[in-house]
Amino acid sequence: MRTIGITGGVGSGKTEILTYIKNRYHCRVILADQVAHQVCQSGQSCYQKLVELLGKEILNQEGEIHRGRMAEKIFQDAVLLGQVNQCIHPAVKEWITGEIHREREADKLDFLFVEAALLIEAGYTELLDELWYIYAKEAVRRARLKAARGYSDEKISHILDKQLSEEEYRAACKVVIDNSDSLQQAYEQIDRKLEEYL
Q1: With helix as H, strand as E and coil as C, how does 132-181 read?
Q2: Which end of the chain is more exposed for a tag (fewer CB within 10 A), N or C?
Q3: Under a CB-based contact definition with an 8 Å cutoff, are residues 180 and 135 in contact?
Q4: Residue 88 burial by CB count (10 A; 0-12/13-18/19+): exposed, middle or buried?
């Protein structure tokens, strides 16, 4: 089983690409975002720490962490954001490490993919066999974000400024999939690469 990390800037089309891979190959896809929700649920590793850190006002009526309330609280406070990330990111990585270990033991899959916005920054390079960078030209990404999410130019610029540069992504990743044109062209690049490994 080969483990592959999928990363790339916002609007690069990672979701569509992973959907294609999941439907076509004997693999498992782990989305770090979903794992982050999981580790924050009551009874899970981050729940108590986050409630202590942010207060009970972040909870909804069922006693679960309300993501909107948590976001409001941390995005105005860089120190708090850092503390929340220090709690969640290691817990997510630990959970994913455990799943990789389990899937290797079971030995039933050809591939295991991990998608995370901060794959490079959070040090997944040591955990995975290789990283793939889903690239799309900035103009294409901007157009996609406006069409799909209704983002303003200002909001898009703000998000892009916080992400790694194209050079940083390329330096850390073994494979680059260009998703600037049609999805079909991106799929062909993926098939060529994955068929090499099978």
Answers
A1: EEEECCHHHHHHHHHHHHCCCHHHHHHHHHHCCCHHHHHHHCCEEEECCC
A2: C
A3: yes
A4: buried
Pairing verdict, β 130-135 and 27-31: unpaired
Residues 118-158 have pLDDT tens digits of: 899 888 999 999 999 999 999 999 999 999 999 999 999 99
Q: In terms of CATH architecture, what is 1-26+110-198?
A: 3-Layer(aba) Sandwich (3.40)
Domain boundaries, the chain: 1-26+110-198, 34-108
Is pTM beyond 0.85? Reply is yes
In DSSP terms, which residues pair with 97 in a beta bridge?
Answer: none
